[in-house]
TrEMBL record:
PANTHER family: NADPH OXIDASE ACTIVATOR 1 (PTHR15175:SF4), NEUTROPHIL CYTOSOLIC FACTOR 2, NEUTROPHIL NADPH OXIDASE FACTOR 2 (PTHR15175). InterPro entries: NCF2_NOXA1, TPR-like_helical_dom_sf, TPR_rpt. The gene is Noxa1. GO terms for molecular function: superoxide-generating NADPH oxidase activator activity. One of its GO terms (biological process) is superoxide anion generation. This is NOXA1 oxidase. Signal peptide: none annotated. SUPFAM superfamilies: TPR-like. It comes from Bucco capensis (collared puffbird). SMART domains: TPR (SM00028).
């Protein structure tokens, strides 16, 4: 499902973030690391992306993505890279709230694995009703009408096979033929 999601919108950072989490759970560490790096690059140097506008009640923070990147690097035994990634996450973390990252740095020094961050359980993408209502098919062209006809008093509009013509009613005038 995440593969199909990121195929449809390959700039969806939260899609790569969640796919990275699933890859870590499936012990596909290289893929997880790649997905976390893609998620961080799709943040486009923003400290966070608020997905509430799209219907997902979650804010994806850059420091969370970096923390999870470090978790994947730990699984790959890349301890120095994990430490550098966590130090980078400290820069992205809001001031005064670095206790989690300090603890993570201690765990990396002791060569202990980190548990990755994820979108909270039972959080689903639910677009607003106003946006879903717009998905109904609409007839933008309307019904076809005869704009001009060489037959006087012709009020027919639409398409159908040739009609049987009555004498004199469907006779075009001499002006119309010219």
């Amino acid at each position: 499902a995440f593969d199909k999601t990121v195929e449809k919108d390959n700039s969806l950072a939260v899609g790569f973030f969640q796919r990275g989490f699933v890859c870590l759970q499936l012990e596909m560490y290289e893929e997880a690391l790649s997905d976390y790096q893609m998620a961080f690059s799709h943040l486009r140097k923003n400290p966070f992306i608020d997905y509430k506008q799209l219907g997902l009640r979650h804010i994806l923070y850059a420091w969370e993505v970096l923390y999870s990147t470090a978790a994947a690097q730990c699984r790959l035994q890349q301890w120095q890279e994990a430490r550098a990634t966590l130090e980078k996450a400290v820069v992205w973390r809001p001031e005064g709230r670095t206790a989690i990252l300090a603890l993570a740095l201690e765990r990396v020094k002791d060569h202990l694995f980190l548990e990755p961050m994820q979108v909270p359980l039972r959080e689903f993408f639910r677009p607003r009703n106003k946006e879903v209502e717009q998905l109904d098919s609409k007839d933008f062209l309307g019904k076809p009408k005869v704009i001009s006809s060489i037959i006087p008093d012709d009020e027919y509009f639409g398409f159908e096979p040739l009609r049987f013509q009555k004498q004199s009613f469907y006779e075009p005038t001499a002006d119309a033929l010219r």
